[in-house]
């Protein structure tokens, strides 16, 4: 198994304002762009060649990762002129693959943090002789996901997208967003139009008698599609709950990046990350949060389960709980923002202007 496709073209709409200036896979998690964790884990599993399927803010990726040699990889980049969906993106990069028709190609979604045993998924694919193999995981509430029931041998029997009624929920197994394709199957995906592997490619393959194999791996798994999930995923990486060889430091209660200045009596807990050149003032308390590069947290501020964007400033004694502050925003002293409130990039909130805001 020497090559993979990483799908990194999504707009990350649910993550705004984090993704206004930065594509979702490049938002820092545990001190480095999230994509770094995926690339490092793929390399650790023996993958050597990865093609990145880019679209939104595509120009950001290559200047950061280059040819991939610093990670021991060979990276290539293919940009969609128009969004093509998951299946269309896979087909659009097929000309950069090197595998023979019957060889496996690993495919990742660029917004999933997982402890998946990649080598076991590839081994399952090879041993079963499948056309496509899917990583499946179990969740308590599967209504927001695509259900994938299997038979006793692990062979997929159906695809059920986002069921809502109890009768529709026939399994707790969901599509976890990592696949192994037989190379020749990729060439059957239509070209030049949007295609969803979840809603079109997989059901069509199943209807035509193809062998789709599921492998249940219920180790760590988190969809980073919302700000709250992204902050949690970053904290889990810092604390070692989510595995990654790319975390730039020891696992623990906090991670402070080079150039950051943290006051001696500030308290950082719960997997907090302080980005490069950020400043944390005296008496500040930051728990389970991400403070991106160049941000300033003034004395006495309290930040819990929140994300503070690059270059933002949080005023003295301001309290954030479950909030997202966009890049360059200014939140004055003595404000209180809670329960999912989002402050847009470069916005300015005067001192003591907001005491509470409900979920938006």
UniProtKB/TrEMBL annotation:
It comes from the Bacteria. SUPFAM superfamilies: Nucleotide-diphospho-sugar transferases (SSF53448). Residues 252-355 form the Mannose-1-phosphate guanyltransferase C-terminal domain. Residues 4-237 form the Nucleotidyl transferase domain. It holds the Pfam family GMPPB_C. Belongs to the transferase hexapeptide repeat family. This is NDP-sugar synthase. It comes from Streptomyces cremeus.
């Amino acid at each position: 198994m020497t090559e993979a496709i990483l799908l990194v073209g999504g707009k990350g709409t649910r993550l705004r304002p984090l993704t206004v200036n930065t594509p979702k896979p490049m938002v820092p998690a545990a001190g480095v762009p999230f994509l770094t964790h995926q690339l490092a884990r793929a390399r650790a599993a023996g993958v050597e060649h990865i093609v990145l399927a880019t679209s939104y803010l595509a120009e950001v990726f290559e200047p950061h990762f280059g040819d991939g040699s610093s990670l021991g990889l060979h990276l290539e980049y293919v940009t969609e002129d128009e969004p093509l969906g998951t299946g269309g993106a896979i087909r659009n990069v097929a000309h950069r693959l090197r595998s023979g028709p019957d060889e496996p190609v690993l495919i990742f979604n660029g917004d999933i943090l997982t402890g998946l045993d990649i080598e076991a998924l590839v081994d399952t694919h090879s041993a079963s002789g499948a056309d496509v193999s899917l990583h499946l995981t179990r969740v308590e509430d599967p209504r927001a996901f695509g259900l994938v029931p299997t038979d006793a041998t692990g062979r997929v029997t159906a695809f059920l997208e986002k069921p809502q009624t109890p009768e529709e929920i026939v399994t707790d197994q969901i599509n976890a967003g990592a696949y192994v394709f037989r190379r020749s199957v990729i060439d059957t995906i239509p070209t030049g139009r949007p295609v969803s592997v979840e809603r079109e490619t997989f059901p069509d393959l199943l209807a035509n008698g193809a062998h789709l194999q599921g492998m249940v791996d219920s180790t760590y798994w988190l969809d980073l599609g919302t700000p709250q999930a992204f902050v949690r995923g970053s904290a889990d990486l810092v604390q070692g709950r989510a595995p990654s060889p790319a975390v730039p430091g020891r696992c623990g209660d906090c991670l402070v990046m080079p150039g950051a200045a943290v006051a001696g009596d500030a308290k950082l807990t719960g997997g907090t990350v302080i980005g490069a050149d950020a400043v944390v003032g005296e008496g500040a308390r930051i728990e389970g949060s991400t403070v991106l590069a160049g941000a300033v947290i003034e004395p006495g501020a309290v930040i819990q389960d929140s994300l503070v964007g690059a270059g933002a400033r949080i005023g003295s004694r301001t309290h954030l709980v479950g909030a997202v502050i966009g890049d360059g925003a200014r939140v004055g002293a003595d404000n209180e923002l809670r329960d999912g409130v989002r402050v847009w990039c470069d916005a300015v909130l005067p001192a003591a202007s907001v005491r509470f805001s409900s979920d938006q």
